[in-house]
Amino acid sequence: MFFHPMDILIFIAFGISLWAQFKVKGNFSKFSDVLCSSQLTGAEVARRILDRNGLYDVPVEVVPGTLTDHYDPINRVVRLSEPVYYGRSISAVSVASHEVGHAIQHKERYGALVLRHRMFPVVNFTSGIAPFLLIAGFLMQSLNLLGLGIIFFSFAVAFQLITLPVEFNASSRAKNIMVAEGIIRNDEEHGVNKVLNAAALTYVAAALISLFELLKFVMIFFQSNDE
Question: Each residue of 48-76: pLDDT tens digit?
C-alpha cells in the first residue's frame, strides 16, 4: 500500500507551509509600505542594536534578493537583503532586528543556538545520505538499511526542532529591543508581530513535515518488523 495514514498529516503540514510562505511574502510586502516612525533604515537599526550590545566588530552587509536576510555565525556577519538594508519600513526594521537577535544569541552563547551550531556538521552529512538509505531500504526490503536511514533522518528532524526556539527567541529579542530603543512605537508592534510571526510559522511547518515523515518511516519499520 503506497498510501499511509501519516500522509494525511504530512499533507496538512505541507498546506500550512505553503500558507505560511504566502503570509510571509504578503505581510512583508504590506508592511514594506508602512514607514517606521523612527525613519531609520534596516542597516541603521542593525548597526545601532549591535553597537548597543558591544558587537562593534560584527559588520552589516547588503546581499541581493528579497527575504535573503540571515546571520552568518561562522564569519559573524549580519547580511540584509536590499529592501531591508535600505528600507525604512516596519518590515525592514523588523527583519533587521531579528537577524541581529541571532548575533546577540551568538555572543551570549544561547543554548539552543550553540547546540544547533554543533549539530550542523553532523546533520549536513546525515541529511545527504538518509534519503538514499531509506530508498535502498524500501527497494531491497532491508530493515537494516531502513533503520539506519531513519536514524540519519532523525538528526535532520532534531535540527529543525532545535531551530524553533532559536527563531522564536530571536524574534522576542527583536521586539523588546525595538521598543526599548525607541525604534518603533507601541502602536507599531502589531505590524512587527505580523511580519515576524509569519516568518516563524514557516519554521514550524517545516519541522512538522519532517517530524510526520519520520514518524511515518518509524511506523513502517515496526510494521515490517512484525511481519
Answer: 999 999 999 999 999 999 889 999 999 99
